């Protein structure tokens, strides 16, 4: 039984996979115009998409990510704090040090 912290990401991953499956069926006109040789690739793509949505939802559910999501200015505050310390490159600047 999944814990409370993984239940929502699992449901989101399954919903994403089901949606993509429905879109494949709709897009191929009820599998009428579907090449059976591509079945394995389709299944792999659907599973991979569900896994990516699961991992992203799990990542977004972490406490520090939720805090940044509730406070959009949080990202700007982190950038400003890193500028004051001089420990990180300025926001909007690449790691090579040149402006984008």
Tell me the structural class.
Answer: mainly alpha
Share of helical residues:
55-70%
Topology, number of strands? 0
Count of individual domains: 2
Helix and strand run: HHHH
Instruction: State Rg.
Output: 20 Å
Quote the distance from N terminus to C terminus: 47 Å
In this structure, how is the largest beta sheet organized? none
Give the DSSP E fraction (strand runs of 2 or more residues): under 5%
**Mean of residue pLDDT?**
78
Morphology: elongated
Uncertain residue segments: none
Question: Count of DSSP helices?
Answer: 4
Please give a structural write-up.
The protein has 100 residues and is mainly alpha-helical. The chain has 2 domains: 4-61; 72-100, no CATH class. Helices cover 67% and strands 0% of the residues.
List strands and helices in order, with pairings.
Blueprint: H1 4-27, H2 39-60, H3 63-70, H4 73-85
Helix pairs in contact: 1-2
Please supply descriptive tags for the structure shown above.
mainly alpha, 100 residues
In short:
The protein is mostly helical and 100 residues long.
